[in-house]
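Database export, one record per block. Field names are fixed; values are copied verbatim from the stored entry.
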Amino acid sequence: MTQGDDSSPATVPDSVRKARLVEAMQKEVLAGGRIEAQGEFNAVIRFGKPVNHILHLLLTIVTGLWALVWILMAIENHNTNYAVTLIVNEYADISRQSSRFMDREVGSWLDA
């Protein structure tokens, strides 16, 4: 490489990065995800359906035997729930990371 030859990729404007994030989020939502949190250049998309624990508690109190169904649903839900983190870097490249054991509190890193 000669002096003055800058072959590193150029950064893109923030508007392009934001547009790329929106496109990636749309693909994830079309695949069945729901947007849990969104920052300027990152987002968390959650897949799977949450268990309605209040409803199952009421059904368990009324029937007594519903606890077995509730336990099975909670186990199945745990195995099928996962989150995808999308991050757009300064070159508008999208990083997609999948996590099954992600904390519910994702807002703190979105502010960073």
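Remark 1: The chain has one domain: 14-102.
Remark 2: The beta strands are 34-38, 42-47, 82-88, 94-99.
End of record.
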